[in-house]
Amino acid sequence: MILSPKQMAILCILSVLLGSAAVWGLRAAGRMVATAGGAAVVEASHSPLRLIMILNKTTFKVKEPLNIHLILENIGNETLTLCFSDGIDFPVFVVYDEKGSKVFDLREDLFLIPSHQPFDLPPKQSNGVALTWYLELQPGTYQIVGIYNGGLGFMLGFTIKTEPITITIVS
Fold this sequence. Notes:
With 171 residues, this protein is of the alpha+beta class. The protein is built from 2 helices and 13 strands. The strands form 3 sheets. Strands 4, 7, 8, 11, 12 and 13 form a 6-stranded mixed beta sheet that branches. A 5-stranded antiparallel beta sheet has the order 1-2-3-5-10, with no helix packed on it. Strand 2 (39-46) and strand 3 form a beta hairpin.
């Protein structure tokens, strides 16, 4: 079937509109997994904060470092006071195996971080941590979830969890 230039233009416009609507819908639901150059990004929000988790890639060799960035963004209209200290307000990640069993939880392995002074996070600003984890897992498929529990610095009363990012470890 040969399409006329007008039909081709309409088809292209419809494809772009439908694709944009699908991406917007997934992103609005907090389930967007974007990949660029092998990196993966997920985000979840609960007003007034958004948690963004970025992995440098999704396929690794055993004992290869995994770089994880966990970013908190103030999506509200007021300045928030946070304190990344003692593992309380610290964004973390948890790793699950193919069966859904927890195989690593940064909250359990986090050494007490010396208390830091609270800091202000103005609206539309972000702050985060860059973590490097050396994979001590067997080859297979795993799920990584970013988590933020509001603690002493800012009593949220809720937890923010990202959708999982699937990683594959090869020998």
